[in-house]
Amino acid sequence: MLFPTTIAGSLPKPEWLAEPNTLWAPWKSSGAELTRAKRDATLLALKLQEDSGIDIVTEGEQSRQHFVHGFLERIEGIDFAHEVEMGIRNDRYKAMVPQVTAPLRLKERVHAEEARIARTHTTRRLKFTLPGPMTIIDTIADRHYGDRVRMAFAFAELLNEEARALQADGIDLIQFDEPAFNVYMDEVNDWGIKALERAAEGLSCATAVHICYGYGIKANTDWKRTLGQQWRQYEQIFPAIDDSTIQQVAIECRNSKVPLELLSLLKSKIVQAGVIDVASDEIETAEDVVAVIEQVAKFVPKSNVIATTNCGMAPMRREIAEAKLLALGAGARLARQKLE
User: Which sequence spans correspond to the domains of the chain?
Assistant: First the structure.
């Protein structure tokens, strides 16, 4: 089937689970009640995706407050009790973050329960997202390693441990989210891709890296206004990514100033093309989705195109996100009819 659909990873959380329209939103309950609420929200996320025609579904990241910190919570050597303020993405915005204070080690499985629930309740291909090593170290303070690269590879080893376990849980596609890849271009080529490959080492399921210009929050939209009429950062890193062992690259294409001809640098990769804009509440039409797929298909073989969202939808209003899911599914169906 041409143009299978997926989402970047996250969906908005129901208001009975967490504060709506907010990143890092606090949970509305605790203990066993919170566990049940997370499970129910996961089932709802799966149902919404299936009904919208999403072919490769996710658990919607319903059990994580944040795509990075949801992984960090089960790691020994991290102090969450004494958070410090830190600039994120080269000081694009500031956040309160935990600190690495000792050697890193997984205390236990991180996402076993979320994977089990999702795998039990869908027969569709299942994607699971993990933060990439470079993005993790850009979202946590170091008070132990004293070396960004050394700490990144320490996290890569833990990510690999969890990724292998997720594969055993029945996950079909593991995606590493690396928004830091469009901020630290030299570091990506020097060591970032090597750390990413270490995180994916030994996996036989499909692997992907998601690179984007971030959620549709003010700090990101303000930053994007400073980037000029063409966003060519990826030109510096796509050749090295194409040479990597990672099989798929997720990139924003809808309402993006990334020149789509840059996608031709990803000669050996499947491209998850973002056809849904998560920085706007405007609901795409099916025809809008087809138009982006047509543009992408000028530079990527049609058989290598997956239709997705530009980024996660966590901070978006639920009704907007659900309408965009429907547009994604309808647009892919129309594209198959027109472009097969």
Answer: 31-339
Selection from 61, 80, 47 nearest residue 18 by Cα: 61
Pair 283, 317: CB distance under 8 Å: no
Query: Which CATH number is 31-339 given?
Result: 3.20.20.210
pLDDT in tens, the chain (340 residues): 999 999 999 999 999 999 988 878 899 999 999 999 999 999 999 999 999 999 999 999 999 998 888 899 899 999 999 999 987 776 777 788 899 999 999 999 999 999 999 999 999 999 999 999 999 999 899 999 999 999 999 999 999 999 999 999 999 999 999 999 988 889 999 999 999 999 999 999 999 999 977 655 676 677 667 776 787 888 999 999 999 999 999 999 999 888 999 999 999 999 999 999 998 999 999 999 999 999 999 999 999 999 999 999 999 999 999 999 999 999 999 999 999 8
- pTM listed for this prediction: 0.95
The whole-angstrom separation of Cα 279 and Cα 92 is 16
In the chain, the amino acid numbered 333 is: R
